[in-house]
Amino acid sequence: MTFLRIGLWFLAATQAGVGGWALLAPQGFYDGFPAPGHHWVAMFPPFNEHLVRDFGALNLGFAVALAFAAVTADRLLVQAVLAAYLTFSVPHMVFHLGHLDHMPVVDQVGNVVTLALAVVLPVALIVVVRRRATT
Fold it and tell me: What are the alphabetically sorted keywords of the record (predicted)?
């Protein structure tokens, strides 16, 4: 149960950070994500304020749902939220895996690692919650 809650809170915090930044400072998010000197979003021009703000709001919505799942640890809710999250994170990862060639190697590695984590962690959490239900 502890790993499940920690994993859900980690995903919620990640989504809140990304979502809040994109929603409240879309140009800054576009120009500076994920960190100074590494401008992953700006490598896919042009800037679109509406799209970045919508992306931020979507991520904040996921943060709320993930936090609610972490607080309640309700099996069905956790599975539904993680399935929804994977519905976003798997195609997101697939797209970016096909668009790495324009990035420096350090950014390619960072991109692959973070995108893979956004898929592997929710899958692991689904396994944990399903095993918990059968024991």
Answer: Membrane, Transmembrane, Transmembrane helix
